[in-house]
Automatic annotation (TrEMBL):
SUPFAM superfamilies: L domain-like (SSF52058). Pfam families: LRR_1, LRR_8. Keywords: Leucine-rich repeat, Repeat. PANTHER family: LEUCINE-RICH REPEAT-CONTAINING PROTEIN, PTHR48051. The lineage of its organism: Eukaryota, Metazoa, Chordata, Craniata, Vertebrata. It comes from Amphiprion ocellaris (Clown anemonefish). This is Leucine-rich repeat protein SHOC-2.
């Protein structure tokens, strides 16, 4: 455990000292975003545009995360055990890409449809049965949606077959 903490600290310090626009905390055995990180990154949080928290054990992500990293453009949360996102995600004005593949979502995170800048949503390998296609179709920037390996219901599968203005990757079951 101490090794994991030291690893996180090292990566955060590198982000601060080198003035990086990215933070990589993938594969750090995190169960949540460490509270102390907010304080350390306060001075540079406005610069950070890319965060990866992939392959951790996170069950939730706080609204404070989204209100701190307001300039975020890409967020990679694949390979965690998230079931939902806080409402604050809907206020991310610059987010263009979110990767939520291989998590534990059973409902489509509806707040994502409020992010006007969002171009790519990856929800492969979750437990989602329905997708709000009407709301997604109203998203001005959306170009790509991946819902492969989800137990989509037959109505959703049928709706995915009709043409959309964005690309949809899905696994069509029989």
């Amino acid at each position: 455990m101490a090794e994991a903490v030291a690893n996180v600290a090292r990566r955060i310090n590198a982000t601060v000292e080198e003035g990086k626009d990215s933070l990589d905390l993938s594969n750090c055995k995190l169960i949540s975003f460490p509270e102390g990180v907010f304080k350390v990154l306060r001075s540079v949080s406005g610069n950070i545009q890319f965060i990866t928290l992939a392959d951790n054990e996170m069950k939730a992500i706080s609204s404070k995360f989204f209100s701190t990293f307001t300039q975020l453009r890409e967020l990679d949360l694949r390979g965690n055990v998230l079931t939902k996102l806080p409402d604050a995600v809907g206020e991310m004005e610059h987010l263009t890409s979110i990767n939520l593949a291989n998590n534990s979502f059973s409902d489509f995170p509806d707040k994502l449809t409020e992010i006007a800048s969002l171009e790519r949503i990856d929800l492969e390998g979750n437990s989602i049965t329905e997708i709000p296609l009407e709301k997604l179709s109203a998203m001005p920037a959306l170009k790509w949606l991946n819902v492969k390996s989800n137990p989509l219901d037959s109505n959703t599968q049928a709706a995915l077959q009709s043409p959309h203005k964005f690309e949809i990757l899905s696994t069509t079951g029989s």
